[in-house]
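Please fill in the sequence for the structure shown.

STRUCTURE ENCODING:
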């Protein structure tokens, strides 16, 4: 056949042109496509905040939380909602069902329903937050050298500057003190002037009321007057005139000190390396930007701001774009090393020209897949690159088989044009089958739904694209290049090659000694299945040189006390020469600078310390060492060091929620389960998310005495506020942020006895102590109430000790927990890592039948035989058993990424069976006896099988030493499964074929 008569799919200019276009597109996509560190998720999680300062828990529950819960229960798309209620504050966490991807309409419906409810909930302030999943990946700090209030004001200015960047979605202040304008008015001044704090508050409020200013208009212009009822400067507050009961005017600044202060009950602080500061957390929009490029622009903006506002400084601390670049570079290095390793293997086991042709196909396939991925809006992140690395060993299989077959026909005397065409005619169907079977393995990943499935979604997309392109390129680019570079050579006598000799010996042994072969196979399987497994977390950790410490003090602890203890711990951390920086967030859990951090907002007894280590430090050893110290040093409260991890955010590996029953029964059951968890040998840091009670002060008003004094409860409340946290008069809006104006005493009272001695002024200007009008009562009240799906609930948490497994612990305690549930009439729901791992497995298992159906269809179309199809599928369990065995040898727990490796194996290992069966059938068609056909098939196909297995293993090896702990479990699972499957199939397949291919002629006719 001449070059001019070549089939269209072997037209060199056409094939090379298309491949060149796709390859260039891939290069452009690599440098221009949107990128980020980790995949993003649909906004399935949100929060509703309810705020009414001073409102007690019961009132806030009845008047705010329960009405909202009734509305939420009517929205079918909501999976769960859980409320946490404290005095004056409540948050309701929402989670939408995992099959929902278009979340915006659902959140809009929730907002609309809450908006309709707001008039009934007045005066409770309600806000719905549907973007709490956003990662605040950039954390900055402000330094003015003039105190925290000046830092705050400068931070507000810098925040506005940064929001001017189009790629910054939000900028949130961290540790910002709530600023107040304080009128420090003493009891002595009240006695001297006869002016009560209530009168000052009312007068100032009147001066700051909303009123429409007059507008002057004539034929030529319109102008207006400044508002006469608005306080616009600090001097106006100081110059306010107030009249005493005797009618004399007094200037406010002469009877009180007027100055700005920090709200004493602010619930949030931010400390860096022992110094309090104000921070700014930036959120970048997901899936729509190049994070590293945006990060560079943000740093340039900060450099300009530092120059503009010198000597004030903006410091960069936690910076996700840098980690994005590091993660991308690390995986790219793995990809390049894998390519180099595969090329070396090809050069060793193939002829130089064939190896060169197959090696060229690798970047052509990878870049073409990346180009198509980028054209359809794909985002480059660690899962994208990992998909390419995982595909590397798979994408060369088809090219290897095609190149080998072309060489075979050249050795038989075919021309350089005829040999590729003959190979295509022989291989297009079996290669299509092998391609479909490999795709079938990744269908469960592709079709699964939920957060875990979303995290790995680009892996099956990239793998399937690479496999399909591999099929097309093996039947186009490889033959075209062979037409130019391959050459006729002397027949290659495979029967004399050492590998062929080994393969022949294996086949003959299997056929001659079937019982011994089966016995050895069973013994081998039993041995590797009994290897001890390593215990560990289902989701692996990340590779950052960062970790964090969660601190939980008793409920009711003030933020100042929480900060004091957290500062002490942070100071001790700085004594470790392996730790370079500490960032302390007190009063909450700090910004969500990493995607799976669990959030705890507005909790005065909570603190989190984030610390960074030197680059060469093993973070896990630091964390383990710290936890051993914390157990001894801080036994009165919870202090836990943790590594940053992968997977959904969880508070602890073990989480149990106790629902229903009476208040007593629920508490009793919760405490009994707490005792079980804390006494188990493999648990540690057992803790409650509820309090057993705290002192609550109440006042019993003497109504008769109150009436005689001509005062009201509102008056008494004003006096109490004045003496303690401050009496809020109005809100001033002349500053960047609204500022409350409060009237306080110079030195606030901090105990109830002194508070009851407060002098109050009656209508006749006489003074009496408040204790004559009210009596204090001390009661016990819960510091916090939690609810789950509309029911009261209590939650218990526990961590597991090193080398322990949470599922084993739960199994040990399951019977006792069920007995307690029956005894107290409550319901127990499990959460934590056990629940997340179960959901992750279920998400994959639900889609598993689709992959099995596709695999079955491909095999039936290829062989038209149930027996041979089942024989091919026999290779799947032979691969699966090797995965946990290899993980046991390298001491890596069998977790989620290992499961993905096993799923990938199901499509890879079946190719060995397909190749051997196809070759054996071709031998039968050629007239060979059954045993000779089987032996010849093993002898001829052993080298291609070994090649494809070796290249896949070599392609996985760089991931086994990846900087990220995410990839070694997957890589080792694939490697172990390939080794056991290939080894066992070479022994078992000849024996199985000898049993199944009974009638040579009829079998061949039926199959073909």
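FILLED IN BY: designer on duty
SEQUENCE:
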């Amino acid at each position: 056949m001449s070059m001019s008569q070549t089939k269209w799919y072997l037209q060199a200019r056409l094939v090379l042109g298309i491949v060149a276009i796709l390859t260039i597109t891939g290069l452009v996509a690599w440098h221009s496509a949107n990128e980020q560190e980790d995949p993003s998720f649909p906004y399935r999680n949100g929060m509703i905040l309810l705020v009414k300062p001073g409102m007690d828990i019961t009132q806030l529950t009845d008047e705010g939380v329960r009405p909202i819960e009734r509305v939420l229960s009517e929205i079918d798309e909501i999976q769960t909602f859980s409320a946490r209620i404290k005095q004056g504050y409540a948050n309701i966490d929402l989670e939408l069902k995992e099959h929902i991807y278009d979340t915006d309409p659902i959140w809009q419906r929730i907002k609309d329903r809450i908006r309709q409810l707001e008039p009934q909930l007045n005066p409770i302030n309600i806000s719905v937050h549907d973007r709490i999943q956003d990662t605040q990946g950039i954390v900055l700090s402000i330094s003015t050298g003039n105190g925290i209030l000046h830092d705050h004001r400068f931070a507000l200015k810098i925040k506005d500057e940064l929001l001017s960047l189009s790629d910054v979605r939000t900028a949130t202040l961290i540790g910002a003190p709530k600023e107040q304008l304080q009128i420090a008015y003493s009891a002595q001044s009240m006695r001297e002037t006869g002016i009560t704090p209530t009168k000052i508050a009312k007068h100032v409020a009147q001066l700051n009321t909303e009123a429409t200013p007059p507008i002057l208009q004539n034929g030529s212009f319109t102008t207006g007057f400044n508002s006469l009822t608005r306080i616009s400067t600090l001097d106006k507050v100081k110059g306010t005139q107030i009249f005493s009961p005797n009618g004399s005017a007094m200037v406010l600044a002469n009877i009180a000190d007027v100055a700005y202060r920090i709200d004493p009950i602010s619930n949030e602080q931010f400390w860096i390396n022992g110094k309090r500061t104000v921070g700014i957390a930036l959120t970048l929009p997901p899936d729509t930007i190049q994070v590293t490029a945006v990060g560079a622009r943000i740093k340039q903006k900060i450099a300009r701001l530092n120059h503009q506002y010198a000597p004030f400084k903006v410091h960069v601390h936690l910076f996700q774009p840098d980690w994005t670049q590091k993660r991308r570079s690390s995986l790219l290095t793995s990809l390049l090393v894998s390519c180099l390793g595969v090329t070396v293997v090809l050069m060793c086991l193939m002829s130089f020209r064939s190896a060169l042709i197959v090696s060229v196909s690798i970047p052509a396939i990878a870049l073409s897949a990346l180009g198509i991925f980028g054209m359809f809006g794909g985002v480059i992140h660690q899962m994208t690159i990992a998909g390419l690395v995982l595909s590397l060993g798979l994408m060369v299989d088809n090219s290897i088989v095609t190149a080998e077959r072309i060489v075979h026909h050249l050795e038989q005397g075919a021309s350089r044009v005829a040999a590729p065409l003959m190979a295509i005619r022989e291989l297009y169907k079996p290669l299509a089958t092998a391609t479909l079977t490999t795709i079938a393995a990744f269908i469960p990943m592709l079709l699964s739904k939920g957060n875990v499935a979303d995290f790995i979604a680009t892996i099956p997309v990239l793998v399937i694209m690479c496999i399909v392109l591999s099929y097309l390129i093996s039947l186009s680019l490889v033959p075209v290049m062979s037409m130019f570079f391959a050459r006729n050579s002397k027949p290659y006598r495979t029967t004399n090659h050492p590998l062929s000799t080994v393969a022949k010996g294996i086949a003959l042994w299997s056929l001659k000694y079937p019982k011994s072969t089966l016995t050895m196979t069973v013994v081998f399987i039993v041995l590797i299945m009994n290897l001890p497994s390593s215990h560990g977390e289902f989701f692996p950790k990340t590779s950052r040189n960062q970790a964090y410490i969660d601190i939980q003090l008793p409920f009711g602890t003030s933020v100042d006390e929480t900060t004091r203890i957290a500062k002490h711990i942070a100071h001790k951390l700085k004594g470790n020469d392996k730790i370079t920086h500490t960032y302390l967030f007190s009063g909450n859990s700090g910004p969500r600078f990493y995607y799976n951090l669990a959030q705890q907002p507005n909790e005065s007894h909570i603190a989190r310390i984030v610390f960074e280590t030197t680059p060469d430090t093993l973070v896990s050893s630091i964390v383990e060492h710290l936890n051993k110290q914390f157990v001894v040093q801080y036994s009165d409260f919870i202090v836990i060091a943790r590594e940053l991890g992968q997977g959904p955010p969880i508070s602890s590996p073990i989480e149990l929620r106790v629902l229903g029953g009476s208040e007593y029964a629920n508490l009793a059951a919760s405490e009994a389960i707490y005792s079980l968890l804390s006494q188990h040998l493999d648990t540690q840091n057992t803790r409650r998310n509820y309090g057993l009670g705290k002192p609550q002060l109440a006042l019993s008003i003497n109504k008769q005495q109150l009436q005689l004094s001509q005062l009201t409860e509102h008056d008494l409340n004003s006096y109490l506020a004045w003496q303690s946290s401050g009496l809020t008069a109005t809100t001033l809006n002349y500053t960047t942020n609204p500022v409350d104006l409060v009237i306080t005493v110079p030195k606030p009272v901090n105990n109830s006895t002194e508070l009851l001695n407060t002098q109050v002024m009656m209508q006749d200007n006489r003074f009496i102590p408040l204790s004559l009008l009210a009596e204090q009562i001390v009661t016990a009240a819960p510091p916090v109430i939690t609810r789950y799906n509309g029911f009261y609930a209590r939650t218990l948490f526990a961590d597991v000790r090193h080398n322990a497994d949470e599922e084993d612990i739960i199994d040990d305690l399951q019977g006792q927990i069920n007995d307690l549930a029956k005894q107290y009439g409550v319901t127990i729901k499990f959460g934590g890592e056990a629940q997340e791992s179960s959901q992750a497995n279920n998400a994959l298992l639900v889609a598993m039948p689709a992959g099995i159906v596709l695999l079955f269809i491909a095999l039936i179309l290829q062989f038209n035989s149930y027996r041979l199809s089942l024989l091919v599928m026999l290779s799947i369990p032979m691969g699966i058993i090797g995965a946990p065995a290899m993980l046991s040898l390298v001491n890596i727990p069998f977790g989620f990424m290992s499961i993905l490796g096993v799923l990938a194996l199901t499509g890879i290992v079946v190719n060995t069976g397909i190749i051997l069966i196809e070759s054996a059938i071709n031998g039968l068609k050629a007239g060979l006896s059954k045993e000779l056909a089987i032996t010849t098939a093993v002898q001829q196909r052993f080298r291609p099988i070994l090649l494809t297995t070796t290249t896949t293993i070599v392609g996985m090896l760089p991931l086994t030493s990846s900087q990220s702990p995410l990839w070694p479990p997957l890589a080792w699972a694939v490697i172990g499964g390939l080794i056991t499957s290939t080894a066992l199939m070479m022994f078992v397949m000849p024996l199985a074929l000898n049993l199944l291919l009974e009638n040579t002629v009829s079998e061949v006719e039926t199959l073909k």
